[in-house]
UniProtKB/TrEMBL annotation:
This is Thioredoxin family protein. Gene3D superfamilies: Glutaredoxin.
Amino acid sequence: MENYWKKSISFEEYFKIGKERLENPANQQEIDYKQYYELGIQRINRTLKKYIPNEEQLKESEAKNFDGKILIISEVWCGDASATVPALVKFFEGKNEVRIFLRDGDKSLINQFLTNGTESIPKVIILDKDLNVKNSWGPRPKYGKELLMKYKADPENYTKDHFYNDLQLYYAKNRGKDAVQEILELL
């Protein structure tokens, strides 16, 4: 984990890289993902403006006295990441160091934290102060997983468009609160 931590970047660098990839794509994937980078940046900006840490969650965090670090495997273009990563960064700001590891540049880390065999992001890795893995979370809160299961169970009546729309409405209203709570429970 120490090598992955050393290769990780700050949230500010992560956001800057996302903007750079949008404005000056360096490869075909970045060109193909242009609309997702645009949406990701808009959603990150919205979350940064609207997210306010919940007082009860702050008290719970203090009571847990967690002295470790948070490593997030992510990419700016990811819809789930754009809703949760900025909230997590703001919540842990000043308490625990949060760094981001870009999934697409090195798949070796995400391959250790697959979700049902997939490279789904964001993946939050909770590390102790010595960078040992304590727990992991992701790629979306429980309610988001329930929406995905609803889509997979009946894609004809609950289409992919309905799923994505409902998921983004949930993220916009919830503003990271559920993701923070689920991670607090793992500390």
